[in-house]
């Protein structure tokens, strides 16, 4: 079942990546296809105000993040409890050298070592999923806050309904993908707990004493890749927060007009869509924090890159057409490249 979930998620990400990747290819024969895909991707200022068919208000972005906060928190809480209860705390780091290999003198000891190593690897996998989900929750909580309190969406701002569904898909599949390698056992753990509660009642349930220190120490014992990934994640996280504040400051609260200004500051000095660039950095951080060995998480990253590259290119073209004095040294999303 676990393998089935993993491959189902991978197939879904590939199905999302390929159509957008095809639209990014610079072939004139694909221009009609590119225009079709762009119509689905357009939103806000780059969506024609007269085009209302199959669109929803852009403020519906809030729906993505409400759902993402609830769904990610559910996965995080259940996976964290499973990790705490089912993978006992070991004082040594996850990535310590197997010095017992020097002491193995027989097949029984070798088998014990392999079993111990396998358990340790499984424990690392589960706690790594907790770490990734924790980072994801930090991201979606901030995005929810920004959607409610930072952005002042124009009443006329719209997005295509297909883009709305894509957002719901992303914030359902992405958190699930971050813990896909252990989601089956986490599901059985939660289902058994619920079944026991229904049959036995709360009074007959086995009490589990939770120590905050013991629940956090395994995260501190994760490897250097996780901490480098977290540093990269928060680097993009901080810049995205700043860029969103710059964009929000361009519209006066309560303003009803369609007056747009050229944004300046932070990464806006080098690219037209630095908030998209920051999003790529954020998910690149998740790839590094995962150890770079999980194809499913690489596919999340690939989906983010192609999706935002398409949107950024259209945004950049809109800025150039809209403003005669738009800085010519700015790129769409990747500095000095694209």
Automatic annotation (TrEMBL):
* Annotated source species: Cucurbita maxima
Query: Which protein are we looking at?
Result: Polyprenol reductase 2-like
Give the UniProt entry's GO cellular component terms: endoplasmic reticulum
Q: Which UniProt keywords apply?
A: Membrane, Transmembrane, Transmembrane helix
Q: Which GO terms describe its molecular function?
A: 3-oxo-5-alpha-steroid 4-dehydrogenase activity
Q: Which residues form the signal peptide?
A: none
What stretches pass through the bilayer?
A: 6-25, 60-82, 94-112, 124-141, 161-179, 267-289, 295-313
Where it sits in the cell: the answer is:
Endomembrane system
